[in-house]
Each structure stands twice: as C-alpha cells, then as structure tokens.
Write a structure and sequence with these properties.
heterotrimer; A mainly alpha; B mainly alpha; C mainly alpha; A: mainly alpha; two-stranded antiparallel sheet; two-stranded antiparallel ribbon; 16 helices; C: mainly alpha; Four Helix Bundle (Hemerythrin (Met), subunit A); 3 domains; 8 helices; about 65% helix
C-alpha cells in the first residue's frame, strides 16, 4: 500500500483499526459490533456538533460581509471563539418553562428535532467504505426521516401555549409538507437514471469505472438539481423561506418560548438539517466524495462547502417571501414543472438507452451515455425556459392589473380629496 | 433478523393492537379520536400482512402489495375523514359522533 | 434470549402501551402524539421483519403525513374538545375488545383447546406457526415488488385503482373542507337565513346594522399613503 493510498483511505483504515481493537478486547460477536456502532454514532453526533459551531461562525462572517458589516470580531482573533462564547452563554442561561405550557410536549420537542436531524447521517457516505449503513433504500430513508421534524415543530408550537408559536406551527405544516412534494419528485430522476436508491450506488454511477460514466447528475438533470436545492432550503426553513420563525412577523415562531440549551438544540437541528441538505445535494447531483487527485473526504468537504455557501449567499441577499407567494410558488410553479420534467426524463430514458444490452432487450435507440446526457440536459433546459416564460408572462399581466388598480384608486382619492377641499 | 421470534408473537401483538383500536372506535367520544383508532387497526392489519410475507412466502409479493394498498387506503381515509370532520365542525360546532345524528346540517 | 427477541418485546411494549394511551388519554393532542409513537414502533416491527422499505414508508406516510393531519385537525377543533374519556357504552366496548382478543389469542397462539373432541388452536394451521424453518431473507424485494405492481399480469390494475383512489380522495377532501367564498357564501347565507326565518316565525326580524362604507374608509387611508409617495 503506497502512502498515497493510505492518505486516501485514512478514515477507513482508522475505523477498521478501531473495530479490530474492540473485537480483540470483547471477542467477536454481537457485543463488539454494538460497541463499535455506538462509538461510530457518537463520533458522528460529535462531528455534527462541531460542524454546527463552525457553520454558525462561517455563516455570521459571510452574511456580514454580504451585508457590508464585519460580523463577530471580539472573541479571539477574527472572532473565531464566538461559537464557544455563544455556547457558554446558552449553557448558563436560565431554563424557563411557561406556566401554562404542556410540560412534557414542550420539553420533548427540542430533543425530537435534534434526534430526527441526526438520524439522517446514518446513511450518508463520507468516503469509500466509510458509511454508517449502506441501506438499499438510502434516498427514501433520508426523505422519510426528514419529514419527521414536522412533528417536532408542531409539538414545540403547541406545547409553548403561545399564539405566535401556534402560528409558526400552522405555517410549518403548509410549508414543510408542501415542499416535500417537489423534493421527492426531483429525487426521482436521479433514482431512475442510476437505477438504485442506495447513496453509495448513486455515487458510483457518477464516477468512472464500476458501471459509472463519470458524468455528475447536475450536468444531466440541472433542472431537478435546481428544484431540489430550492425545496431543500424550504424544507430546512432557512431564509428566504423562514416563515416558520419569521422574527419580524411572529417574533420567532415555534421556538419563541425556548431559552438556554433547548433553544440551542433547535438551532443545532436547523443547522444540522441544512448541512444534511447540502450533503444530499452533493451526493445526488455532484458525485459525493468522488473526484480526482485529492482524497475523497477533501472532495466531499469542498463540494459541501460550495453548496452551503450558496445557501448562505441566498440568506444574505433575498428577502422573505409572503405566505401566499410561498404556496403558489410551490404548487403552481415547482410541482407542475417537476412533473413535466419527470415524465420527459422517463420518455427520453426509454427512447435513448445508454446501455446497448437493455436497448436490444427492451427496444429503443442505443446511444453513448454522453449523448443521452446531452439530450436530457437539453430537455431540462427547455422545460425550465418554457416554465420561466409562462411565469414571466403571467407576472407581467399581474403587474399591469395591479398598476391599473392603483391608478384608479389614486384618481378616485384625488377626486374625493378635491371634493372635501371644495366643501 | 427474525432469529428466535415465532410467527405467532407478531400475530398476537397485532391482534392486541387491533382490539385496542376496536375499543377506541367503539368508546371514544370524539370523531378525530375514532379515526385515529381506525388507523391503529389498519396498522395491525399491516403487521400481519408483512409478518406472513416474511415467514411464509418471502419470494412472493402478494403480502407486500396488499400492505402497500393499505398505506394508500389509510392515507385516503384520513384525508377524507378529517375533511368531513372539519366541515361538520364548521357547521355544527361539534365533533361528537353522538351529536351528529341529523341527516341535514 | 436473542437480541431480536429482546428488541421485539421492547417494541411491542412501546406499540401496545402507546396505543392504549391513544384510546384512554383525555388530552386529544397527547393522543395524537402517542399515535406517532405507536406508528414509530410499528416501523420498528417492519425493520425486524427485514422490510426496511416499509419501515421508511411507514415513517414517511404515517408520521410525516397522516399524524400531521390528525394534529392539525385537533388544533383546528380545540375549542370543542371535551375532557371526557369515553361514551356511555365504553364498558360494552371494552368487553367486545377483550373477548375478541382472547378469541384471537387462542386461535393464533401456541395453545390449543379441545371442545367436544374438536381441537382448536394453531395445531390446525396449515403452515409452520413456530417459525422454526426460517426462510432466507429476500434480497432486493423492492425491485420485485415494483415490477409486480406495474405489471398488468400481477397487480397493475389495483395499482392504477389506488392512484385513482388517492386522486379522488384529494379532490374530495379539498371540496368538502373548503370554505365557501364570494357568491356561494352569500347563497349559503341566504339559505340559512330563510331556514332561520322559517323556524323562528314569531321572532322579530333582526334589524340590520347600519351599513358602514368600509370601502371609502379604506380608500381614504390609501389616499394618505399615495400622497406620502
């Protein structure tokens, strides 16, 4: 084994060595497996906590730069100790429970949200061979677990016994349940093209060798990637879709009554979910850990950092959308476009077949994978352009009617004011 | 992962779940709770179907397909049932199944 | 006792305990949350039965969608939720439930009883109830099931019907639960007004409130806003 290979597989080697150590102490069997898995789960949870601290710092710095501020700069050089200072503040804050709160529900909600956020990481592949469990239904599992946080938010909203919390919870249902639809619809093309729901298989399909063709899916189905990213942002409730905790409208939504560690758990859940969405985006559409020269985990880090920077960028620049805009954007734009896109991809995938053996068995025109990818790319772009064209036409009409309405009202008001003056 | 678990364990647990759901359907005073208990009964049926599939015909897909159809029916039933209850609540301000006995709202 | 047996007992305690709380607890919101716990336990059963796909589907459909619907319905009707536990027939219901459970336990369990020379119990079942001869776990049943569901020789027609059922349920739910708006609302209000008048002939007709020209009030407000610009 060369040095190069050791560096590439350092995570796997370390994991195997640790598992061997535990097995030699406890003897092979169920107990050793259990201890190894427990330690691995604890390491992932600890890494998530560390990532949470790093992400809050990075986000505050980057959003500050976007908005022409400096951001945290007091604690440590360049303010790098700010997350630790925040943590100390959270720990030492008084932990309050509202007098009329539903105690059990109120206290359980932050735990549930953190647990559901961390469960996602059980199937995410970090490097070749470094994955909690390679489920054959990995994508489905991630989406299923992601839908569980809705219950936690409803628990928080109801348990606090506060009208703003309840409003936030009501908004949650509309938003999170609604945006699950385009998310699922845009995972479908990836699953269809790779022929598997396992995240490892999906990454293999996007790398050269092992039956893959080396084309990341973002270049094959760019429209799906775009809609997946948008609905992922909405699923995690980040700006510009942060209606469930809109500070300026409903104070802080579902977590207005929480303080101290419970609030920190909500915060952790939000960031861990956002990180999971970025990792899922890289795995599904950008080839995950695959990449030349650099070790796999470095590639994963780079890609996830790029996607998360896009999320921060959106947060720093876009204003919050209105509730009705949120709903019509989802149901009138994203969902129809996704359905059209999925149907087109199905038809194209059946007509232009990349695998010559399948083409002979099932019929269809056998083409090289690159040509199939180009055809799919073109169809995606065409669907996107047609959708945008229709929306822009409708928006122009809407603007015209609104302007007319305003003009009419202004004229009416002027006449009324003139009448008053005359009297 | 079925080492040492006999089939009848699953059958008895699902029978118990079904009977708890049945009790709830007959005894609860709230229409929403009644629908919750119906969902419990459907879940009991699903446990049975998948247990039979795993123990007796793991190569066939009939048990799985029926379980999938029960998922569909449960979702449809919950959506329509709750919509009806909300509609009745709007008109009569009550969700007690004993009070909703007139044919006209 | 194997690990699987311990897991099974823990999960069944969770499922049955929370199901029992669903039917007995007074607070309906808590009942909905216990329902979520029960659904989660059933997903655990599916994992024990090597049906991971159904476990994920259980979490997605039951916890992510159906229990959300229940919680939402509880929130919307919370001002009429009473703290009563059961109705007048709860004792009869408990008897029916317990009797049915005993019957099923005798028929399905490892016991067998003899009544007048006839043996009742699982000894008469045509297949292996004890699960001694465990068959191998199926690999990739999801693919087999998927192709079976879309194949017209197997479950193609029921699958299509399931899709139609979902569509009908969706349209029906929206139609039933929608609020009347605009002309329809006026029509419905007029109908109820006629009904009320029919019913209370003796009562004097309520005086209508003096109409406030809300439009004008709004517009003067708008005028101020426009002037500011």
């Amino acid at each position: 084994m060369t040095v190069f290979e050791v560096i590439n597989n350092i995570l796997k080697i370390a994991g195997d060595a640790f598992a061997g150590l535990i097995t030699s102490i406890l003897g092979a069997g169920g107990l050793a497996d259990f201890v190894v898995m427990l330690v691995a789960a604890l390491i992932i949870c600890a890494l998530c906590a560390v990532a949470f601290m790093g992400l809050t710092y990075a986000e505050r710095k980057i959003v500050a730069r976007i908005q022409d501020r400096i951001g945290p700069n007091q604690a440590g050089p360049y303010g790098v100790l700010q997350p630790i200072a925040d943590g100390i503040k959270m720990f030492t804050k008084e932990d309050t429970t509202p007098a009329e709160a539903d105690r059990w529900v109120y206290n359980l909600a932050p735990l549930v949200i953190a647990v559901f956020a961390l469960l996602t990481y059980a199937v995410i592949p970090f490097a070749p061979g470094v994955v909690g469990t390679n489920l054959n239904i990995g994508v489905f599992y991630v989406i299923a677990v992601g839908s569980g946080s809705t219950v936690a938010i409803l628990m928080a909203g109801w348990g606090s016994n506060n009208k703003y919390s309840l409003l936030g919870a009501f908004r949650t249902v509309a938003q999170l349940v609604g945006y699950e639809v385009p998310m699922l619809l845009n995972v479908l093309p990836v699953v269809m093209l790779s022929g598997s729901m396992s995240l490892v298989d999906i990454i293999e399909r996007q790398t050269l060798g092992n039956g893959g063709n080396g084309i990341p899916f973002i270049l094959v189905v760019p429209l799906s990637a775009l809609i997946f990213l948008i609905s992922g942002i909405a699923e995690t409730g980040r700006s510009p879709f942060d209606l469930l905790e809109a500070e300026s409208e409903i104070v802080a939504g579902f977590h207005v009554e929480y303080s101290g560690m419970k609030f920190a758990l909500f915060f952790l859940g939000e960031y861990v979910n956002a990180l999971a969405v970025s990792i899922m985006f890289t795995v599904l559409f950008m080839g995950g850990y695959a990449g030349p020269i650099l070790p796999p985990y470095v590639w994963l880090l780079l890609k996830v950092a790029a996607v998360f920077t896009i999320l921060m960028w959106l947060r720093g620049t876009l204003p919050r959308v209105r509730v009705d805009q949120l709903m019509s954007f989802n149901w009138k734009f994203l969902v129809p476009m996704s359905i059209v896109n999925v149907i087109l991809i199905m038809i194209i995938g059946k007509v232009f077949v990349a695998d010559p053996v399948t083409a002979q068995v099932n019929g269809g025109i056998a083409v090289p994978p690159l040509v199939q990818a180009m055809i799919l790319f073109t169809s995606n772009v065409i669907v996107l352009l047609i959708g945008l064209l229709m929306v822009s036409r409708q928006a122009r009409q809407l603007r015209l009617t609104e302007a007319e309405d305003l003009d009419r009202r202004a004229a009416h008001n002027k006449a009324a004011a003139a009448k008053v003056v005359a009297q | 992962m079925i080492n040492g678990i006999p089939l009848y364990w699953y059958l008895i647990v699902s029978a118990a779940l079904f009977c708890i759901g049945l009790y709830g359907v007959l005894a609860r005073k709230n229409a929403i709770a009644v629908i919750m208990c119906v969902e419990l009964m459907l879940n009991a049926v699903n446990i049975n179907l998948i247990a039979f599939w795993r123990y007796i015909t793991p190569a066939a897909i009939s048990g799985l397909s029926f379980a999938a159809f029960i998922f569909v029916v449960a979702a449809a039933e919950a959506a329509v049932g709750l919509a009806l209850i909300i509609s009745i609540y709007r008109n009569t301000r009550s969700v007690d199944p004993e009070k909703i006995d007139s044919m006209k709202l | 006792m194997t690990l699987q047996q311990i897991l099974f007992i823990v999960i069944s305690l969770v499922v049955l305990g929370s199901a029992f709380l669903v039917v007995t607890t007074r607070n309906l919101f808590h009942a909905a949350l216990f329902l979520v716990v029960s659904f989660f336990g059933v997903a655990g059963f599916y994992v024990l039965l090597d049906a991971g796909f159904f476990a994920a589907a259980q979490v997605l459909v039951y916890i992510g969608a159906i229990s959300i619907l229940f919680i939402f319905a509880v929130m919307l009707t919370r001002d009429v939720i009473t703290a009563q536990r059961g109705n007048s027939q709860w004792q009869a219901a408990a008897f029916v439930g317990a009797f049915l459970f005993l019957l099923m336990a005798i028929l399905l369990g490892p016991f067998s009883i003899t009544i007048r020379g006839h043996q009742f119990g699982n000894a008469n079942w045509p297949f292996d109830m004890a699960g001694d001869a465990i068959k191998a776990a199926p690999s990739n049943f999801v693919g087999t099931m998927g192709s079976g569901l879309v194949s017209m020789d197997q479950y193609g027609v029921p699958f299509l019907l399931a899709g139609v059922l979902l569509l009908v349920a969706m349209v029906g739910a929206i139609w039933v639960a929608r609020e009347l708006r605009g002309r329809e609302a006026e029509k419905a209000a007029a109908e109820t007004a006629i009904d009320d008048a029919d019913m209370d002939m003796n009562q004097p007709v309520q005086e209508t409130l003096p109409l406030v020209d809300t439009n004008e009030a709004h517009e003067s407000h708008d005028a101020a806003a426009v002037e500011k610009h």
